[in-house]
């Protein structure tokens, strides 16, 4: 009997390893990984632009990850443990500052988590919880994932990433009252960056709205119309192409702008590898929400 059991184990064990699923999703893009296909290309591009500006201006790495369910992966534990494992497995944030931020949205499980790097103290957990409860979950509950993600990203930049960066640069909170110039300079930095982030998120919408005030190259009248959609064609990677058409309300003028690759149901073109992250770690700080 024992010989039969030994033979069974020899046959079984070589197959056990390869059949195991990945513990965590592959976070291949530095800023946005919509693995659950929850948002449109406009929302993703705007969010990526805001997070790219955050990285270039402050060095803070923040990424958004959406998945369908944690059951698709083998990682054990609750949502907080899963998010921390994903954060550390990907190495989000600078390895010396540990100031990375992860926004995780799990659509089928109806849960979300903001995971903070180990540099953020517990005060930021309270702020993150307010952002989850006020700016994200109400929109996720209505199925508007794009709006919830956009609002969450803006609030995280303004209330978590920038204040922590400023505290790190100045060596923490000042002992006494700062001078007028220092306070004014800090406000200017915050306002300037908020403008960059908002333009990244909503710049295309604003640009499309301003199109109506441009003059038509053909008839000279104001009132151009901007329309975006998907053209039934594909680029060299086999991805659908976005169509941006400018037309005149008063004449037959029409102009099709250069198309861009759109995402597919199974994913989209990624520009970076996991190695681009800085190797940061999280010790468990953050906040969760359900709907």
Structure report:
With 291 residues, the protein is of the alpha/beta class. The chain has two domains: 32-171 and 185-207, Roll (Diaminopimelate Epimerase, Chain A, domain 1), CATH 3.10.310.50; 214-261, no CATH class. The protein is 42% helix and 19% strand. It contains six helices and eight strands, in the order H-E-H-E-H-E-E-H-H-H-E-E-E-E. It has helices at 2-16, 41-58, 79-90, 122-141, 145-170, 180-210, and strands spanning 32-34, 62-67, 101-106, 111-116, 224-234, 240-248, 254-261, 286-290. Strands 1-2-3-4-8 form a five-stranded mixed beta sheet, with helices on both faces. The radius of gyration is 23 Å and the shape is elongated. The protein starts with a helix and ends with a strand.
Helix amount:
40-55%
Q: Tell me the number of structural domains.
A: 2
User: How is the main sheet built?
Assistant: 5 strands, mixed
Contiguous helical run count: 6
How much is the average pLDDT? 77
Q: Which term fits the overall shape?
A: elongated
Termini gap: 53 Å
Q: How do the strands line up in the largest sheet? A: 1-2-3-4-8
Give the topology, please.
Layout: H1 2-16, E1 32-34, H2 41-58, E2 62-67, H3 79-90, E3 101-106, E4 111-116, H4 122-141, H5 145-170, H6 180-210, E5 224-234, E6 240-248, E7 254-261, E8 286-290
Parallel strand pairs: 1-2, 2-3
Antiparallel strand pairs: 3-4, 4-8, 5-6, 6-7
Helix pairs in contact: 2-5, 2-6, 4-5, 5-6
């Amino acid at each position: 009997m024992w010989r039969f059991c030994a033979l069974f184990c020899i046959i079984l064990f070589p197959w056990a390893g390869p059949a195991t699923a990945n513990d965590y999703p592959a976070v291949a893009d530095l800023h946005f990984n919509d693995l659950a296909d929850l948002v449109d290309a406009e929302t993703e591009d705007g969010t990526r632009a805001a997070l790219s500006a955050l990285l270039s201006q402050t060095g803070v790495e923040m990424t958004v990850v959406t998945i369908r369910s944690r059951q698709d992966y083998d990682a054990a534990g609750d949502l907080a443990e899963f998010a921390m494992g994903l954060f550390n497995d990907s190495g989000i944030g600078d390895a010396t500052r540990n100031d990375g931020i992860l926004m995780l949205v799990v659509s089928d499980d109806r849960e979300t988590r903001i995971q903070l790097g180990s540099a953020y103290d517990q005060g930021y957990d309270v702020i993150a919880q307010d952002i989850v409860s006020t700016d994200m979950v109400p929109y996720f509950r209505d199925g508007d994932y794009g709006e919830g993600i956009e609002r969450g990203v803006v609030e995280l930049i303004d209330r978590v990433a920038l204040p922590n960066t400023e505290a790190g640069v100045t060596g923490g909170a000042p002992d006494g009252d700062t001078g007028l110039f220092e306070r004014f300079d800090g406000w200017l930095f915050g306002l300037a960056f908020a403008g960059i982030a908002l333009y990244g998120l909503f710049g295309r919408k604003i640009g499309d709205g301003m199109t109506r005030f441009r003059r038509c190259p053909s008839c000279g009248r104001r009132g151009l119309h901007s329309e975006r959609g998907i053209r039934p064609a594909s680029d060299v990677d086999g991805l659908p192409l976005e169509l941006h058409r400018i037309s005149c309300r008063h004449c037959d003028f029409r102009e099709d702008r250069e198309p861009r690759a759109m995402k597919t149901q199974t994913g989209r073109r990624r520009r970076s590898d996991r190695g681009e992250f800085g190797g940061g770690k999280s010790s468990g700080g953050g906040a969760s929400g359900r709907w």
